[in-house]
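User: Teach me something about this protein's shape.
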Amino acid sequence: MKKRILTALFALIWLFSLTAFASDEDNRLGMLSNLNIMVGYGDGDFGLDRAVTRAEFTKMAVAASKYRNSVATRLSVSPFSDVMYDSWYAPYVYIGAVNGVLKGYKDGSFKPDGLITYEEALTVALRLLGYEDSEFEYAWPYGQVGTAEKIGLCDNMNSGVGEIQTRNQVSHLFYNLLKTTPKNGSGDYVKAIGYEILDDIILVSSNNETQTVDKGYVYTSEGLYKTADGFDYTLVGLRGDAVLKDGKITAFLPDVQSEKTYSVFSSAGGNYILLENGEVSNYKLDKDGVLYYGMQKTTVGAFQNQFEPGDILRVYFDKDMKDDYVIYDSGELDGPFTVKGSGWMNDNGIPKDAAVIRGGNKVAASAVKKNDIIYYSPTINVVWSYCDSVIGVYESAFPNQNMPESITVSGKTYSIEGSSAYNALSSNGTLSYGDTVTLLLGKNGGVADAVSVYGEDEETVGFMVEAGVKTFTNASGREYSSNYISVVGTDGVLREYETEKDYSKDRFENSVLKLSFSGGKAAASVLKSSDSVSGTYSYSSQKLGKYILNSDSEIIDVAGKTDKDGVLWKKVFPQRLDGISFSERDIFYAEASEDNVIKKLILNNVTGDVYGYGLVTKASANNFITSGDYTYFEGASKYETTTMGITFSVHAGQPVQIRQSVQGGMQSVSMLKQLNEYEGLTAVSETYAVTGNEKYKLSDNVHVYLNSESYEYQSITLSQLLANANDYIITAFYDKTEKSGGRIRVLLAKPKTK
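Assistant: First, the predicted structure itself:
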């Protein structure tokens, strides 16, 4: 007898909360109701404490039999002397009697109003399973009771011979019956009445989620199935067991599980930030975890490059609150809309209680500014506000200005995103070739809208990335040379502008610049901090010395240009800086408001997060001609490189910090630097490594490598390591101390000797 079957069949009339656990009673009654064996009364109450008459039990037994569809609507004869042919129960008594499911008394009566006893109920169930009365001829009623108890029919009935049965006890009997194997049969009895079981499947998607699934069908982890009329598609996403009738899913009951809904705030190069209830979440999906998208099954790691802002991730957990699977929905956003003023929510039909995300942080609606580009997700009631912009000369449109798909501004091409940008930049719009324009960029970096440049007094602040002379294309398609400059702003966005002069001079390199604009071209000047900042930052109090650093502060961390490579930068959130001790040399630039709230902060390579991290697997240096051959992991990817004019003091098996460079348009490695080691590691969790009484934080993007007995290295996930942590000797490697901004970047695992 199968132990588990039907313990999680769900009925269409039962809709359970994803974060609540379905009770055994709900499962049992929901399934019996759906199969029409036992249904509730008009008020939905099942009356479980009520005693069951023989007539009522007969109807239930026939509904649980293979004769369930043979019941006539009316009779002209009476099967028993005390069963009137026009009574409601007569058709059921007749079918049951004709097919040997039940019998009357020796005097020819049936006693329909009499109450069913324990032994009578068990005997009927045994007959349905194929047992003959002759098998128990001289053992009534204990032979029937003993057999019923042995095969599991009596589980949870808590009754005995001679006891009157309640609807609760009878519900257990019929539920047990459906799970029991018939005599001389196979499988579960439920199959004998024309149903099949799909055990432990996931309802992945329907036509409501993806048009690739036809209406009236549901795609499951076991394939595509037609659904019965009235199917409740709100159950899509759940894991459980399904009942099939004639190839259609007619009933389904979820397993014990819970669900959390996340939305993608930002995503680039496989890295992403999730939101939960409008707040930035530290939750990271298991890259090896199962992910479903439409009718596709894959892994999180294989699919995460396709994450886009606004997409929905429903993460389902098992009863132990461990990740089970993810269902991905490419969320549809309303927008882009251009903010025109303080009434932007009402202007665009957005509810006042919507969560607002701007600059990676949850903010008040008042923090959204004029000319921000916004998107709204009705599904999760969240607004994304983007304030990225580009100022420059409108040079050309492709394929033409009558129908622009992309435009070129100051030598750089941008795609058109949204009708507002199309209307402004087309030949019927207000902007023409040669105009100095401000492009308002949307979530994917395309132009969501365009307006005339704010004014000749417009200024911006950023860290210089590069400058020089390059080729641009004018409105007539002719190429021309012009000076240009690129800066990264405190919002983490790289912007490029034409300039009147060449700024590729030493005094501008590795400097914070103030850019002002005139005639569509930028003029740069070196900018010093308006505020001197130092001290240890506390995320809980938001204090950094005498200043406040909060979710409204724009922060980037920058590693300046060297002889071998360019500037590296990364947008930083305040919680990443918790506990770091800052001196003035750690800060390129700080700008605070009158009430000492830091508005813009440019760090001098504090976090180390701008670099890559990995493991060298092969190192061969020729110091005579200063060259080397190196093979190394960066993250999970493996690379080979040959250097000329530079070698690195690393060896095979060495965890390293990595810096890439671009030379002649080709990317190569310019730094492989050894990491430091924490000795005597005693434990590892998802966020910390422990040595003795000390806990050290893991990087959010810690890399894990397995060193096999044959000294071959492979990249594994942190969850894979933690699942078998006791089998390994684990060593942690860090770039610098936590107080200085460092983290554990690499965990190296070696199997213990058996």
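Now, about its shape. Confidence is low (pLDDT under 50) at residues 1-22. Residues 389-526 form one domain. If you'd like, I can walk through any region in more detail.
User: That's plenty for now, thanks!
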